[in-house]
Amino acid sequence: MHLTQKQRGVAVGMVAGLVLSFIVVCYGSGVFINFDVQTRFAISFLLPAIALFVAIARLAQHRFFNPADIDGSALSTGSDQARLLQAQLQNTLEQLALASPVYIVALFGSHQNVQSAVPACACTFLLGRILFFATYKRGASARAFGFAITFYPTVLLLGWQLWLVFV
Q1: Cβ-Cβ contacts under 8 Å for 66 (sequence gap 6 or more)
Q2: Which residues contact 146 (CB under 8 A, 6 or more apart)?
Q3: Per-residue pLDDT tens for 114-160?
Q4: Measuring CA to CA, how many Å separate 64 from each of 13, 49, 69, 82, 90?
């Protein structure tokens, strides 16, 4: 099977993101172990909330200052920039919808190492979203790493929890 240059670029970004995510989950399982429960929760949910806030605020600001987009996507076709910002917001919501239940279950779980990994995952969530937003216009290859370090820590944390439940 022959991959296009863009597909190879996405694959490289995703593999690099997966490797970094594995390191973050493993390393993070020890870093936040001495933090109290309230601090773990705060870090775990405020950092992703910041990413969502940024995505919402960027689109709202764009719409306010652009007459063609001020009525919102339901009442206009939307400019290229509005559609781009809406796509970033949508992807962030999707990532947060996956991360939230995984984080909650992990934080309420009985394994301290899993609990400690959640704030580390939240740190990469925010970093990943910042990179995703900054590189989005440059295409799939450019944004793959930001996507991956948002997505894979959650997936690894989910897998770890499933393994603990069934083993």
Answers
A1: 79, 81, 82
A2: 17, 128, 129, 130, 131, 132, 133, 134, 135
A3: 999 999 999 999 999 999 999 999 999 999 999 999 999 999 999 99
A4: 34, 22, 8, 11, 19
Give the torsion sign (CA, 77, 79, 82, 88): positive
Residue 130, classified by CB atoms within 10 Å of its CB into exposed (0-12), middle (13-18) or buried (19+), is middle
CA distance 144 to 20: 13
Per the listing, tokens 């279950």 go with 105
> Ramachandran region of residue 53, left (φ > 0), alpha (ψ -120 to 50) or beta?
alpha
Q: Who's near 32: CB < 8 A, 6+ residues apart?
A: 40, 43, 115, 116, 117, 118, 119, 120
78: left (phi over 0), alpha (psi -120 to 50) or beta: left
User: What is d(CA 24, CA 155) in angstroms, rounded to the nearest whole number?
Assistant: 12
Q: Give the C-alpha separation, 76 to 57, whole Å.
A: 19
| The token pair that represents 44 in the structure block | 């775990």
Q: pTM for this structure?
A: 0.94
